[in-house]
Amino acid sequence: YYITNNLRMQLKFPETVQKINLLYYSIIVIVLGTPLWWYTTDTYRAALPHSQITGLTEYKTLFSIPVGVCFDPTEVQHGRVEQIIISLKPFLLSRAFNQGRVIYDIDLSIAKKCGEQSFSIFFTNDVVRPSKAEISPQGLKISFDKIERMIADVAEDILNYVELTQLQNHILALDDPTLHPILQDVRNAMAVATSYNILVSVVNPDPAAIKLDYNLVEGTKQYLEPFITELGSIAEVTYQTQVMRYVKLPHKPVKSGDVYFISENNLPHLINPIESKLGTSTTNDINLIIYLMEGKYSPLVIKTKDGDMKELPSFLSPQFGAVLLYDTSNKTTIDHSTTFNVLLPQLKQLLGLKSTNSADISPQEKFFMESRATLTHILKSIDTLNSLIRLVDSIPNMVIGDHIAGQIASSVEGINKAQTALSEGKLSEALHQASLARNAAEKSFSDPSILALLYFPDDQKFAIYIPLFLPVGLPLIVAYLEILKRWKKNKDKTD
Questions:
Q1: 241 vs 202, 214, 220, CA distance in Å?
Q2: What sign has the CA pseudo-torsion 392, 396, 399, 400?
Q3: pLDDT tens for residues 238-274?
Q4: Are 133 and 140 in contact (CB under 8 A)?
Q5: Are residues 202 and 343 in contact, defined by beta-carbon separation less than 8 angstroms?
Q6: What is the sign of the dihedral through the CA atoms of 122, 124, 126 and 127?
């Protein structure tokens, strides 16, 4: 009996050892290995302000345009002017176009000093044409006679004076691309950015025939740099200069009587050979091109589609730059007072302003550019943040580092501060905060750690994890199946 019982225990011992080993390795894999793997491969995602970003899309931005009201105390009492302002506000609000994501408000108030604000209105009895409003050095000049008889028209004059419709068109076009081919100002303008680079190029198609002193450094320093200084509050603007040679135009001027002309229909084709050699590479580059025409093509004009002759041979290429066909006949140097008096007004159009002959930036034009830039930065920042949130939600294993969360938080904070400043009429502060917000939003969206996961399909994850888990998990599964098989066999014998 003793020998038989001992033999049975020896036969069961390997099976017992197998179960103990299986339990041991299972504990190692499940209790230790799995948490360790989970911890080391877990995707870190910093907390993002989802609710705040979603809230930004639910509320409209209030944009207040401060307009100072001036008057002569000898002509009217202070209280009467306050009554006029109160009477005008309902008409202004009814005509202010509030479609879209911005609510516009005209903030009329009596100015402490006339002319200290970008927009000023002067109420007076001394108007040449009392039925109309007139622009004067003091601002918009409106007669009391017109205020008494046509106060609704006065409100319309004020809206036209602050060019509210032009600003609204640019902002609406951000969400409605169909407006671009309809509105010329919108179509011509470069996209609003926090920085621009202006490239001034002199193109000499035949240096042997055209021998001029380009005088480019002195010209840009004298005429372009003061203009760029005026833009300093709107965006970071830099400029470069270059000289290009042996670039021929695809269409030569045609002689008609005593003049040579280039058809307006051929103007877009003139840019192609120049553009391919400019060296510009970003959407923020603005090109100012001075193309030197041989003296034999003098005088040179542009023939419009209507058959008229445009004496000044220059043209604007929307969202690209401006081109001047410079007459070199009887010249030894380029007169940059002429070139920049032509190119700078076109540069203003590229920045969203209306076409004018002035190379200077008026306070009203500067206000428009600052307003357009501020509103665009705010709306683009909101769009970028919402796109980022949707992207993060669509890719659960995307790593969101603390630096990205910090940038997003900074962008949200900048948007809130910009909106608050706008509602208070503090445009400069709003523009500064909006620029910071947009830079932070775009920087977080284009972070390399995010971009790397946009093209990481799930099948690659299986290709990584299967070689890791299969050698460990397969023996355990087979061992458990074998134990289950033996248990069923022993159970059948017992039954």
A1: 8, 11, 8
A2: positive
A3: 999 999 999 888 888 888 888 899 998 888 888 888 8
A4: yes
A5: no
A6: positive
